[in-house]
Specification:
The chain is an all-alpha fold. The chain is built from 16 helices and no strands. It folds into 2 domains: 171 residues, Tetracycline Repressor, domain 2; 132 residues, Four Helix Bundle (Hemerythrin (Met), subunit A). The protein is 73% helix and 0% strand.
């Protein structure tokens, strides 16, 4: 049994973050459980869901549908992230970037037992499924469940500790919100939703590898084979550039559906992204400090701006072919 599988069943080699005896304030426990959901990641996922729903509707869906879909999607992401923290608590303890997460933190922040985190993750997933299935539709519920299962079993348990392709394949879990949003409005998964899935799928490696370059020593200490750990900076920069070009092409594939205003904005934003990716590669080739966090932060701004354009052009009465 692998270390990751052992962790899933709650009897891994190390039990971390278990609080000492005594009553724990409800507020402290609630804050710790909330922190396990990785709320900043959830925000990014929701940023892609709303524009997708506007595009699917070619206008503004009912507020009720928007709220229910966003809530269900947020709960699904919270479930996946909580289960990820539960499984990865052994390596989180070895990495400075994750050492303050509630399951591995020392002192007052250590307010959660592993079993409680596991139960919370499962409950969040069940609530998400029932909310989306009963109040939206069962297709969106099934897609949200698919995202949870993919993130937990394919990425966290299957790939993360075994291959440098972990984030390439596993990153697909973060693409599901666009499918959920589209299905919530239409009851199906259309080609525009598939195109948006491809955009986020291709965006994820440049985004995450830039972060992993910054925290390479962290991942190496935890024996996680992220690409910057097992490949030279030159190789990483080249792959980032390749995925960046593919991502920009994928954004343009949506142009026939979203119109010429979107196409012009997507081309401009894509060109900007490519400039940043080339800058990273040039700095590495010149032997300068690569400053990968510049690309990491820009990638977040890029995705936000791109989906803002999608949202705006979806409700505009002009700009279509």
């Amino acid at each position: 049994m692998t270390q990751a599988t052992s962790a899933l069943h709650g009897h891994g080699p190390v039990q971390l973050g278990t609080p000492s005896g005594g009553r724990r304030p409800v507020g402290v426990v609630a804050r710790a459980l909330f922190a396990l959901t990785k709320p900043r990641i959830i925000e990014q996922l929701l940023i892609t869901t709303i524009p997708t729903m506007l595009l699917a509707k070619r206008g503004v869906p009912s507020p009720w549908l928007l709220v229910l879909t966003l809530l269900g999607g947020a709960l699904a992401a919270a479930s996946a992230n909580t289960l990820n923290c539960y499984i990865d608590r052994d390596i989180d303890a070895l990495m400075k970037r994750t050492s303050r997460r509630p399951l591995v933190a020392k002192g007052p922040r250590s307010a959660i037992k592993p079993g409680e985190a596991l139960a919370s993750g499962i409950i969040l997933g069940v609530v998400s499924t029932l909310l989306l299935g009963l109040l939206v539709n069962w297709i969106s519920a099934a897609l949200a469940d698919g995202a949870i299962l993919f993130y937990v079993f394919v990425y966290t348990l299957g790939l993360k500790r075994r291959t440098a392709s972990n984030i390439v394949i596993g990153g697909a879990a973060g693409c599901f919100p666009v499918l959920v949003g589209w299905a919530a409005v239409t009851g199906t998964v259309g080609l525009p939703a598939v195109a948006l899935f491809a955009v986020i799928f291709l965006w994820t490696p440049p985004h995450f590898w830039a972060l992993a370059m910054k925290f390479r020593d962290d991942y190496a200490a935890a024996s996680v084979p992220m690409l910057p750990v097992v490949a030279t900076p030159q190789v990483v920069a080249r792959k980032i550039l390749g995925y960046s070009y593919a991502m920009v092409l994928a954004t343009l594939a949506l142009a026939p559906y979203s119109g010429w205003i979107y196409a012009a904005c997507a081309a401009g934003l894509g060109g900007w992204f490519l400039v940043e990716a080339h800058r990273l590669r040039s700095r590495i080739a010149a032997g300068d400090p690569p400053a990968p966090m510049r690309l990491f932060h820009f990638s977040i701004a890029y995705l936000t701006l791109l989906f803002t354009v999608i949202a705006v052009t979806a409700v505009l009465p002009v700009g279509h072919w």
